[in-house]
Predict the structure.
Amino acid sequence: MKTAIRRQMTIHTEVMDLLNEQIALEMHASAAYLAMASWCDQRELVNSKAFFYKQAEEERGHAMKIFEFINEAGGAAISPAVPVVNNEFESLRAIFETSLDQEIHVTQSIYKCFKKARSVDDFASEVFLQWFVSEQVEEEDTVRSILDIFDLMGDMPLKMIDERLPTA
Ligand code: FEO
């Protein structure tokens, strides 16, 4: 049997379209985290910069996971446009607040993909997306915990707050 005939598209096209949008969103998140890492790096906020460099890598990893899944499922993964991101921030706290907003937005988008997969009986995509649902719970929780540290230590110098933040 020829490869072209053997290759079957198991992913539903509507799910594939949403997942391609999700790839773009994850790549945008990666670029946004890189800008945050740079801001922290320039100010020698050692823990915060390590945190955001790692986040930037992780988001790229999420995008690649979806990218490979789409192609494995017989669909067509689309390499997204290079995103434009904000590189100016008011404060470290503002960066973490932006980070939480970004994670909440990503979570909502994952839910949208998940609901679509379920509604069109695309079971393989639904199972694939379960990992992302759990991952988002963890990511939101991490940033919320960091913002709690800011609430507790709001008046301390920036570097002292940075020293108390996790690097990942
Ligand atoms: Fe891949 Fe933090 O969303």
Summary: The first helix runs from residue 3 to 6. The CA atoms of residues 33 and 56 lie 5 Å apart. The chain has six helices and no strands.
